Amino acid sequence: MHRGKGMKFVGDSRVPAVRKPNIPKDYSEYPGKTEVFWPNFLLKEWLVGSVFLVGFLCLTVAHPSPLERIADPTDTTYVPLPDWYFLFLYQLLKYSYASGPYTVVGAIIIPGLAFGALLLAPFLDRGPERRPWKRPVATGMMLLALAAMIYLTWEAVVTHDWKKAAEQGKIRAEVKIDTNAEGYKIAQANTCTSCHGQNLSGGAGPSLIGTGLKPEEIAKIAREGKGNMPPGVFKGTDEELKKLSEFIAGLKAE
User: Where would I find the Cytochrome c domain in this sequence (predicted)?
Assistant: First the structure.
């Protein structure tokens, strides 16, 4: 077969037979709808970003982040609260099917399935439609996930004991404790430090620093209890109780 005049053969119909120079498309026929990237477009982006940055800095100055006391590793009663964007996972781990022996379900499996579905969404739903009502599966899954996150976040907020949280994180006055003092050793022997902290600045129980109580009042509380403190916690002798009471009464905030 003879090659016809002007005929060209290509292996793929999508590959042009004649290579054209790489010239960008001419948008001059769309006035006002395009602009130069540098400096016109980029300058606008920088200006918008600067406004948000200045606004955020003003917000941090007007409402600084609340600080809590220095972490005490001996305080096992402290319950940390995550930031707001993790509250839904925090609430999820409170339920019986996602906590305790099933913590791996709430901490790994459920979030893993959710984020895995998010990553696979472009591959699972490849339809050309962009209107939400024409993509019911993708839209339904998105609304379900959004509703679950809002509900769990709301539940975490309304069920949290904010009063207790403020008290456990409250910055308390500290004092240098003489751990070699006999009164401190008596406090340790009677498990006072397990509730009131190693520095006696508070934990499950209130701070014992700067109580303003007299030794006699402290001795009475140690014997008879007060509030959440049951009676009979102190097991020592009267002499040890006197030394303990005098030691605690002498603790003053610096």
Answer: 178-252
